[in-house]
Specification:
With 142 residues, the protein is of the alpha+beta class. The protein has a single domain, classed as 2-Layer Sandwich (60s Ribosomal Protein L30, Chain: A). Helices cover 36% and strands 20% of the residues. A 6-stranded mixed beta sheet has the order 1-2-3-6-4-5. Helix 2 packs across helix 3. It is globular and about 45 Å long. The N terminus is likely disordered. This is OmpA-like domain-containing protein. InterPro entries: Bact_OuterMem_StrucFunc, OMP_bac, OmpA-like, OmpA-like_sf. Pfam families: OmpA (PF00691).
Length: 142
Amino acid sequence: MKGTKGVSAFSARSRVEGATISADGRVALSTDVLFAYDKAELSPKASKSLEAAAAALKAQPKRTLTVEGHTDAQGTQSRNQTLSGQRADAVRSALTKLLGPGWSIQAQGFGQSKPAVTESGQTGEALKAAQQRNRRVEVRVQ
């Protein structure tokens, strides 16, 4: 791929339903695709996103991952912290099966403490879009 010296064509920023893979190997997964509202069980639609994430991760030389769960600001901080941790753990479990042996995968929930975008001051469709971006699970290669 032109202009991406040292970066595989697959990992150079691509998007699969519910998964965005950046050039640095970070994988962002939309929780709207992975989970039902306020739930931590993976939905039937999650497999395509998780398979894309696993393929991108296998292309990376490092084998240590951190799965980070994030929520929007709806609900209590306590509930969001718990939910984000449960979702990160569900993705960790799925990736463990998809990636196979030789990987070290940790899971951590951040609740609403690390938003991708600000929700305050937003209304209507802009608020919905901000909340959707903040509901995510990110996989970081270390």
